[in-house]
Give the backbone structure.
Amino acid sequence: MPSSLYSPCNTCPRKCNSNRNEGQKGFCLETLDLRIAWAGLHFGEEPLITAKGGSGTIFITGCNLHCAFCQNYQISQRGMGSTVTAAEFSDICLKLQDKGAENINIVTGSHAIPVLRDYLIEAKNKGLAIPICWNSSAYETPESLELLKDVVSIWLPDLKTLNPIISQSVFDAPDYPKVAKTAIRYMVSNTQTIIKNNKMLSGVIIRHLILPGRLDDTKLVLEWFKAHADGKSYLSLMSQYTPVPFDETEMKKREKALSSFQNRYVDEQEFGELQNLIDEYNIQNGFYQELVQDTEWLPDFSRTQPFQSSLAKPIWHWKSGFIE
Ligand code: SF4
């Protein structure tokens, strides 16, 4: 069904003004249709999100940020995915719930908030009772977040960088630091932390992926977290940066952006410095990943199992629909 919020589309801070109801695409490359790439149980999220049963993860096609290093670029920038109706989306959510998912984890849905809100409400009306987790870049307007307030219980935003020079070069959004800080403050101030049996039912986990060679930028993020969110949310520091083996054409397009940091794994020295920073800032609640220096985190969404089998159990794929 057409959404009044898509004509013209000002759903996210890009404010493209494209008429998505009429099939026009903006920066996110998506029209009115909700397209998804994969759904399944994911066991690689933070322990409070994965818990015992795994996170019921749904990867949305399209993106309003387009990071040059995106490991999900097949779906975020190359359009891999297929359209689902509200009824099909509900069936996927309910299947994940039946399979033991601890939550429904919507990955990168910022450009589709009006439709996702409607679809999630329909799924709840049909019996979806597990918490909804909003897993996004935080490049979102307060007006859009307001639409999700009554639907989402767990917020899982990235805080990618607070350096506008990096946000301009890596995802063409010099306003990202300002927008993301506002969005995350909205999430933190509207959410009570509830954890039962080592499982988050409600709360905020702020993720930060360390960019190799840019530890000073990570320090800015830690400073901001300490001042504005410590004690009210969790921090998740991720060291899994993995250079994506783009083909020659894609690499040429991304060369300049990727040269604004070092396109390599985080090294041992940086990882040691990061641990010192964590101690220095005395963060109350948080997680950090062990150092990862291989391709285990690189998914391939052309396969029904895009991940390592220990990390995920597929339920639905864009080419084949339900898998079992
Ligand atoms: S959601 Fe897409 S079309 Fe709408 S403003 Fe953002 S990038 Fe543009």
The chain has a mean pLDDT of 95. The chain has ten helices and twelve strands. The longest strand covers residues 199-209.
